[in-house]
Amino acid sequence: MVRLKARCVRTNKLFFPCFVSFLDGCGACVYVCRYLLCEVCVSQRSKLQLLEEKAIFQAVKSAVAKAHGEYGAALFSIGSKVTYLNAYTGVVMLRFRKAFYQLLWSALPFINSIGPQGRKVPCFFNCIYVGGTIKTCQKFLVRYDRQQLYRMLPHCKTGAEKQEVRRAVQTCSHSFYKATQQEDDDDDDDDGGEEGEEEETIVL
Amino acid sequence: MSVFMDLNIIAIADKAKLQSTIETAAHLGYSTVAINYVVEGQQKKQLIPKPQPVAELFEKFPIVQGKSRPIKVLNRLTVVVTDASHFRLANAYKDFDILAVFPKTEKLFHAACMTYDVDIICIAATEKQPFHCKRSPVNGAIERGVHFEISYTAAIRDSTMKKYTIANAINLMTTCKGKNVIVASGAEAPLEMRGPYDIANLGLVFGLSEGDAKAAVSTNCRSVVLHGETRATALGIIHTMKRPQPPSEQPEEETPAAKKAKTETD
Questions:
Q1: Of A168, A176, B99, B247, which is least surrounded by CB within 10 A?
Q2: Chain A within 8 Å of B202 (Cβ-Cβ)?
Q3: How do residues B68-115 score in pLDDT, each as one tens digit?
Q4: Where is the composition biased (Acidic residues) (chain A) (predicted)?
Q5: Phi and psi of B186, rounded to 5°?
Q6: Who wins on pLDDT, A69 or A170?
């Protein structure tokens, strides 16, 4: 377990594979995880900037504890983590152990607000994807964010906004294809995710 | 293929809020929603509300997430029956696409399952159901194609309600074994909606199996909508409707046509 943790820190955070197996003296030790990509929906998009990993972790923790009691809290304390947070698009990636992710997931609909007492942001979690690895989640997220850009296009009021979104769509699709081509060529792929993030920052 | 539906969005007078709720539903990936008008049967002469025409709600309906077509909006009526006289013949309710009934006593629950011409039977979410769901009426309802509805908004709002909702849901599931169940929101505000995948997973808490929970937000809802359509028609085979053309000019045009036809036959 200690070795697993050390490895987790050393590797790139976004590309840490979930399916970690390493042969020890005692035998194979496998942890299978599930990654939940959730969208945090708020009434005003500007409130998304207030999101923090810590606050989300606390909100999920208390929701699980409230829904499933001490048993749920105990399960949550094993291997659960907020892996990724994008405060611009409001996408959160949560990591749970596969053995009981459904139980922990069933507590997520009961989250009403995030944040410390007094500065609560009313919101809700909408799960958009469940993946087995971070890589598949990322692939999905790039595709999903591009869809959001297409959805954004008809809502643009001014011409400048329209141009901006159009440009973002073009750049992201170009880089996406480039990234996928590179992926096909050689399996060493560090492009996909970064492109995904780039595209999101362009828009907002 | 799965098309998600949410057949319970409470109709509120605030049009902007209703619009934003429906927009949220489209964003979450629901391709059909139903606006729910609730009628309490307390008064002697209950007033059935006129449903607002759906086309007036939006100039342009929001596009569903992941699909390219706009969201479909239906009208639904829920009749709360505390006495047998509160439920009238189906003719009075023909303006609505879906008809639901919320029985308060065991006798009415039995009648709703076996005889009432409805699409949905609501299960209490804000109080402990005062009666036990018996096997025979529930089986009768399943045979007739009537569905049972669990709404989850009350559970999200308050933890006591959550207890009641889960207890009533599990009580029902032990009887109907997960068949003919739909899970709908009953939302009044946009932040009370939840995504379809979350609800499918929440079904596990309500005692549904994985497949049944997914069917509760997709295929079962579809059969409710189709059942609602058959109510307006004769067994779903024949459907009569008024001709939309104005009748003023028709007789003048028709007579020459008839004459012409005669001359042709001669």
A1: B247
A2: yes
A3: 788 888 888 888 887 776 666 656 667 778 888 888 888 888 888 888
A4: 182-204
A5: 75, 35
A6: A69
- The CATH architecture that domain A33-132 belongs to is 2-Layer Sandwich (3.30)
Rg of chain A, C-alpha, whole Å: 19
The half-sphere exposure of B25 on its side-chain side, counting CA atoms within 13 A, is: 32
> What share of chain A in percent tops pLDDT 90?
0
Reported ipTM exceeds the 0.85 cut: no
- To the nearest whole angstrom, how far is the Cα of A119 from the nearest Cα of chain B? 17
Instruction: Identify the CATH number of the domain in which residue B224 sits.
Output: 3.20.20.140
Look at residues B36, B32, B41 and name the one whose alpha carbon lies nearest to residue B51: B36
* Shortest Cα distance, chain B CAs vs residue A93, angstroms: 15
A40-93: pLDDT as tens digits: 888 877 777 777 888 888 888 888 998 888 898 898 888 888 888 888 888 888
Give the count of beta carbons closer than 10 Å to the beta carbon of residue B97.
Answer: 23
Q: Does A64 touch chain B (CB under 8 A)?
A: no
Burial per residue of A103-116, b for 16 or more beta-carbon CB atoms within 10 angstroms, e otherwise = bbbbbbbbbeebbe
Mutate one of A45, A94, A100, A124 to test the B interface: name it (highest B CB count within 10 A). Answer: A124
